[in-house]
Amino acid sequence: MEKLLTLWYGSGLYNLGLGQAVMVLVGLGLLYLAIAKKFEPLLLVPIGFGGILANIPEAGLALSAAEQAAHLARPEVLERMAAALQLGLDPAAGAEAWRHALETTLHGDTSPELVRAANDAAMDAGYAHGMLYQFYSVAIASGIAPLVIFMGVGAMTDFGPLLANPRTLFLGAAAQFGIFATLFGAVGLSALGWLDFSLNQAAAIGIIGGADGPTSIYVASILAPELLGAIAVASYSYMALVPLIQPPIMKALTSRREREIAMTQLRPVSKLEKIVFPVSLLVLVVLFLPDAAPLLGMFCFGNLLRECGVVERLSDTAQNALINIVTIFLGLSVGSKLMADRFLAVETLGILALGMVAFAIGTACGILMAKLMNAVSRMPINPLIGSAGVSAVPMAARVSNKVGLESNPHNFLLMHAMGPNVAGVIGSAVAAGVMIKYLG
Amino acid sequence: MQDMQLLEEGLALMALGMGFVFVFLTVLVIVTTLMSKTLGRFFPEPAAPPRGRGPAPGRGDDDVMAAISAAVHRYRRRHRR
Questions:
Q1: What is the rounded CA–CA span in Å between residue A311 and residue A300?
Q2: Model confidence over A300-320: pLDDT tens digits?
Q3: Any CB–CB contact under 8 A between A183 and chain B?
Q4: Quick one: pLDDT at residue A30?
Q5: What residues of chain A lie within 8 A of the CB of B25, using their CB?
Q6: Number of structural domains, chain A?
């Protein structure tokens, strides 16, 4: 009978908390969106599954060694960890109170050295980091996974349309206003006392408006790792929702005549220009904003691999095998941040709402900028391509094309919209660099 | 008081960030345009002639042209009657 009880106490059913149950449902919801609705399946499948894994009771896959030990270890180990954390334990309170005190200290603002010491104490006692925790520290905490993905994106990007019409870079710049407006919105909500975001957290939330998954994850991992799960989920789900979010805004801000504007054919771009462009972009980054160097450096490197034409194999690996491998680990690591005690908070709802606002403002600013440019320039510019400035390559460009075709079935805007689209990637990386410089 | 400071910092970051993004991309526009012009001037595209005119014109084309015009001529004559 006692053996049976032990088995029962060790089962998931016995230990499942309400929060964990809700998070497992959230994970299943993400899987449903990815599989049945095809919402960014490449990322939401790993994220959703990682979220379920992270919330398996007792398994502690997303916990560090110290957190696991605080939950499971014998009292002597707890005492050793408390000594490492310089935490006084009340001998009369008993082991359960000790566990609670240790967990609060580990989650709180304890200095990294002490946490490391506690981890060492736990590892000496035979506890190990959970699998997802390891993935997270290798892939995201180190900053590597988003950067490798950025290299792959660079290797997949064709700068031809941008080089043929460099002024579309302004559209990519204007659409970044969504990022900064949302940052200000998040700060405003905190000032009103509705939510509680620090400036760093507000910046990490704003970058959702960049509509660029790897950039959001990179910035969040540096400025606000505690919000990373919510930010990554928001940014990837909104990227999937681009075809729903953008068209109403685009139609509200443009007249039918403007949507029908046909653009002149793009000039052909020579191979040499395409090779020189990533190098000159890199030189500008070096000169003006070294803080954007990790992101834009990898982006330019990937693009040079593609365009130089002598390292076909490397380019192929960067845009296929490597980016796929890294995506798997990135997704699972993001999933590990979907733990109940950190994800189920009012802040998450705030982040989801602010992210949507960021997207909408970015789209609107891109379109308004395109209207302005159309008014002052000799060459006609269809305002619809402005919305592609929010990056989200290539979905946003396809949306511009589709809305354009609805007004004028002979008007193909896709290539014209790819210019602002890749400009948006550069713009959001620059914005990320500014934020990291200012706050990091 | 602290809220005001937070707001001010947010506003400052917004102005600075947006300004910098615009300045950077403006410089990039200028550099890209200059780069394209310079390259176009000093390294005119060697690939242009074959791409521009399609298959090179030659004797074969003349023959085809002759055949087509003959056919058109005959067709018109026959239908005019």
A1: 15
A2: 999 999 999 999 999 999 999
A3: yes
A4: 93
A5: 169-170, 172-173, 423, 426-427, 430
A6: 2
The alpha carbon of A79 is separated from its chain's Cα centroid by a whole number of angstroms, namely 39
Residues of A in contact with B14 (CB under 8 A): 180-181, 183-184
pLDDT at res. B59: 58
Give A88 or A358, the one with higher predicted confidence.
Answer: A358
Are both A123 and A150 inside the same structural domain?
no
Please give the model's pTM, rounded to 2 decimal places: 0.86
Nearest CA in chain A to B35: A273
Q: Which candidate, A407, A420, A425, places its Cα nearest to that of A370?
A: A420
Query: CA–CA separation, A62 vs A401, rounded Å?
Result: 42
Domain containing A258 equals 139-439
Chain-chain contact of B24 with A183 (C-beta, under 8 angstroms): no
Q: Do B31 and A280 touch (CB under 8 A)?
A: yes
Of A131, A155, A175, the residue that ends a domain is: A131
CA separation for the pair A185, A193 (Å, rounded): 12
- The tokens for A78 are 């707890």
Q: Are residues A109 and A249 in the same domain?
A: no
**Class of residue A79 by CB neighbours under 10 A (exposed 0-12, middle 13-18, buried 19+):** middle
Q: Do residue A158 and residue A47 come from a single domain?
A: no
A401 has a pLDDT exceeding 70 = yes
Which of A191, A423, A426 lies closest to B6 in CB terms? A191
pLDDT of amino acid B46: 62
User: Cα angle vertex B15, ends B12, B21, to 5°?
Assistant: 130
Looking at this predicted complex, what is its ipTM?
0.87
Give the integer Cα–Cα distance in Å for A270 and A286: 25
C-alpha pair distances (Å), B76 with each of B66, B68, B69, B79, B80 = 15, 12, 10, 5, 6
> Is A7 inside any structural domain?
no
A127 and A150 housed in the same domain: no
- Whether A322 is covered by a domain: the verdict is yes
Nearest to A171 by CA among A401, A398, A396, A408: A396
* Minimum Cα–Cα distance from B11: chain A residue: A184
Q: Tell me the per-residue pLDDT of A183-227, one tens digit each, with 9 for 90 and over.
A: 999 999 998 888 889 999 999 999 998 888 899 999 999 999 889
Shared domain for A371 and A319, answered yes or no, is yes
Rounded Cα gap, residues A280 and B50, in angstroms: 29
Nearest CA-CA distance, residue A22 and chain B, Å: 34
- Which of A103, A131, A159 marks a domain boundary? A131
Least confident of A417-426, B7-16, B46-55: B46-55
Give the A window 284-323 contacts with B, CB below 8 Å: 284, 288-289
Q: Mark whether A24 and A171 lie in a shared domain.
A: no
Q: Is A176 on the interface with B (CB under 8 A)?
A: yes
